Automatic annotation (TrEMBL):
UniProt-listed CDD domains: SET_LSMT
Protein name: SET domain-containing protein
A GO MF term: protein-lysine N-methyltransferase activity
Family annotation (InterPro entries): SET_dom_sf (IPR046341), SETD3_SETD6_MTase (IPR050600)
Superkingdom classification of source: Eukaryota
Amino acid sequence: MSPAWKKAVHWIESNGGHIHASLRYDDEERQVFLGLTSSGTPPIEKDTVLMTIPDVCLVSLHSVERDDSSPFGMSLFRVIHFLETMSRQSGESPPIKSPSDPSVGYRVGKTLYNNSQDVILALYLSHLKEISGGNSGNGECHFFGPYLATLPADSKFLPRQWPEESLSRRLFGTSLYRRAIEEREGVRREYELVKKSWLSSNLGTEGNFPRFELYDGMLGCLTSRAFASLGFDGVDAMIPLLDLLNHARGHGCNGGENMVRYERYEKNGSEASSVPMVKRQKIPGGGVQVRTSKPVSEGSALNMTYGAKSNATLLGRYGFCIDDNIEPDGSCNDVLEFEVKPGEPRVKLQRGPKSYCYGPLIEALEMCTTSRQERGHESSDVEDESDGLDAFLNGCEEDGFGDSDGESDEQDCFYAGTMESDDLAVVKSTDSGVEREIAALQILESKLLEAKSILSKNPLSGICDKEGAMSDEDWYCSILVRSELHTLTFYSGLCKAVLRRMRKEEFRSIGDIDSRHIENTADVFLAIRHGSM
């Protein structure tokens, strides 16, 4: 059994929690297992409690607030509040979590890049590491020391933390490359901003402020491990030991069924009766409980799903990819952020049934015909066609396609917002309108093929199997590159299929699942936008 796991279990149980005796963590495989073997042992029943983690062991803003051992945590609240106040006074919005990736902020300039909660927690945990010996320390002198010891020793597991040479080689031509550069610059900028404000407020000397390397690494741990709204009062929290469970999704997720489920429990059985934990109180209280969601055999590796996330999100936020990121309905969770026009918002391309790819196709085509300002005045050039909309929606229902899980994040469910009546408006099929759309399709196809040609030059593009000496990072990036090449091929094929129909050319379907999705979407395109052709 892992020494760090053993110490963390003792720490949790000493503070009123519970860890199932059969759970163990394998350091080499970086995996939580239930027992040692499955031979001759009956499975553990559904709803068996595997973990009970009390609030006092959760790392959240409440942890910072109630830490009397150092004034550093409370000083962070004052500094961040000051920065947010200055941002509002200067007309900027406070930092928020990006809807496309909760780990990434939108803000530039005077505000923070990440949301303030993450910045405070990352600096607080960095401080604990700093006073315990920096990268080599695990904070054992502090209450949260047993938890800090379970965090990865290698803090540079995210693309934004890689050396420039490795980043450009691995992610050349991908949509994640630009985002990784933005994250790197944003994290450095916000660190320097907070540090400057902290020092100018006479809260301490430069030697008392955590080094950037510690902050950068701890922020990576935080954004890859924190659970949304599971702390007391609905704050985000890091949950010891539960965060060691790996992600499984799509075909690799045992038929799509989670092995465990987790939820908050409250002190007296209801949220209304729960009260904040007294400092270092060691009696049963609120917290998070983890149960089996189905019978689990002894010896099984325990996994959970982080949601229907794209490989770009998984690599950028968690540091890994999965090779078969496909849902049972045939849709791919991967999302390619495609730049149609410089300076314009990127279009999120996802391959799959027509309900997934029709909206992004229309969005990209509009960028190929008009400027953003012109698109704001195009409503007078289109008319709503309820018959076409009904046919589209009915066709989607007949396909039986849809999200099989309520855990999708906003980036990976963007297509849920693409079926509004405005998006499905029917363009009047004048000759000029048809010619304009044919031209737009040709432009878009050309842009897709150009992007594919560039991405094909990535040195990892031709790798389909992990070689013995290949690093995990190279393998994960090869998965991402192949997926984005697949998506570019899919949408260029979709453009070609629509063009054939608009030109009334003969075509023959290959019959594979991608071809079926392409042909169905092309048929819908003509029915909705050119019903009179």
